[in-house]
Recover the amino acids of this structure.
């Protein structure tokens, strides 16, 4: 715990057998109270390795629910366990767990309610091996989103995120897509709900075992990002209403 706040790390996994142990071993357990592993119908030994590591809370999807569907299970379980702060950490070792203390400290002190690990701040993305076309797409989409949403994030597409329970309980994330655009919809919901988001510089690694979507899926994701930004703009202006912005019942 930190400042009497229960900290839970959630690991949304899909075929993460090669990197799960390395990721898990770097989690700062002097701060983290619980770990939740959600396996999205992997074809490898992700669940077995999780059991061998002693992870107490393991959820296995019998059918693949998608990246967004995986996160829904993660957050729902974390809240049911009484989490005050939830760290979403990819178990593919693309993002370093060593930043968890810094990220959760910001929230535990009630400075911000959301913290993102940004690959763009400090230029870590290209140094870490991000494909150039993804970097260019990231910059273009982020500029587009900042204009429509009215914010100044360095990027909206990082998978390293920490949330307070107040944020997760305030936004209707269970209505979001089960695909990769889920992440983007969450940030849109968070801003629409009136929360502010902090960013810290985060190194990243692109390698064979790290998860990454191909060009086709990236294109679909990009179109989803544009759609989400337009929906946010229309919702904020009162021109249209969308279910993802409805209050949680």
């Amino acid at each position: 715990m930190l400042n009497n706040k229960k900290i839970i790390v959630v690991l949304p996994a899909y075929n993460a057998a090669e990197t799960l142990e390395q990721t898990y071993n770097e989690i700062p357990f002097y701060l983290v109270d619980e770990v939740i592993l959600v396996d999205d119908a992997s074809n490898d030994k992700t669940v077995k390795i999780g059991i061998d590591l002693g992870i107490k809370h393991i959820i296995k999807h019998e059918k693949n629910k998608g990246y967004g569907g995986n996160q829904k299970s993660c957050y729902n379980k974390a809240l049911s366990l009484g989490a005050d702060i939830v760290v979403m950490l990819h178990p593919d070792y693309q993002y370093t767990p060593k930043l968890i203390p810094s990220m959760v400290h910001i929230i535990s002190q009630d400075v911000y309610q959301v913290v993102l690990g940004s690959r763009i701040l400090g230029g870590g993305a290209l140094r870490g091996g991000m494909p150039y076309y993804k970097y260019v797409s990231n910059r273009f989409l982020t500029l587009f989103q900042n204009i429509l949403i009215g914010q100044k994030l360095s990027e909206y597409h990082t998978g390293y995120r920490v949330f307070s329970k107040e944020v997760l309980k305030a936004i209707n994330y269970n209505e979001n897509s089960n695909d990769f655009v889920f992440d983007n919809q969450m940030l849109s919901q968070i801003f629409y709900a009136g929360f502010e988001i902090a960013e810290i510089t985060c190194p990243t690694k692109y390698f064979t075992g790290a998860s990454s979507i191909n060009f086709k899926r990236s294109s679909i994701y990009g179109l989803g990002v544009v759609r989400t930004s337009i929906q946010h703009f229309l919702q904020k202006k009162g021109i249209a209403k969308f279910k993802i912005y409805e209050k949680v019942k």
About this structure: The domain at 7-245 is CATH 3.90.550.10 (Spore Coat Polysaccharide Biosynthesis Protein SpsA; Chain A).
